Amino acid sequence: MRVFIAFDGSCEPFDVSPDQTVGSVKLMVKDYFHVQLSDDKQVRHFLELSYAGAILLDNWVLTDVGITPGSAICCLLKQEPVVRVFSAVTGETLSVLGTVFLLSTSVARLMTLVSQQCGLPVSSFRLSSPTGLQLYDCNRLHDYAVDVGATLRLDTWDGWAEFIRGCFLGHRLTVQRYLSRERPLTMMVPTLYIAYNYGTHPVYSLQ
Q: Which residues form the Ubiquitin-like domain (predicted)?
């Protein structure tokens, strides 16, 4: 059957078998478009196929995911993240891109990169290794035996989870309740930081 694959601004026809796997289609795309996949220890790239908004796994069969003659499949060249960070606050997993040398940098540097992606100031969260060890700013990632592709965990400080979620969602009453309690100045920093990054305004009318 003939399908169409969109890649790098072009859309080309491919004749494939209905029982062909996604992985074998990726090889066809790689050869047809002369895609150079770097698989060294510094930067890793890979092809990602998606259909109807869903990412296709390599071992899936085309017909099993509803691909029929004339279907359009999207193909992207992506970079493998050096590490991933699971946020216990939002339930999302962030991908931190770069080279393997990131593992030799300080935890403080990683905290800054994560802060830029998640919208939280570095003072409001902590990171833990896959084994549950808290990462300290002065150390380096390789001090905790963190390997390429590892998933770290992001947590806020004790008692801050509901407050931080309220900031993200713009729930003014929740935020005001926490700000009226102890340490209002300490909690004002993430409030303003999140409001700036996400366009929410939970700090209005705090007088």
A: 1-79
Which DSSP letter does residue 65 get? G
User: CA torsion 58→60→63→64, rounded to 10°?
Assistant: -160
pLDDT in tens, the chain (207 residues): 999 999 988 899 999 999 999 999 999 998 998 887 765 554 567 888 999 988 899 999 999 999 999 999 999 988 777 888 998 888 889 888 776 677 888 999 999 989 888 878 888 889 999 999 999 999 998 899 888 788 999 998 777 777 777 777 767 777 777 666 655 556 666 666 666 566 555 444 444
Q: Going along the chain, which residue ranges are E strands?
A: 2-7, 10-15, 45-51, 54-55, 72-79, 83-87, 93-96, 125-128, 150-156
Q: Is the pTM of this model over 0.85?
A: no
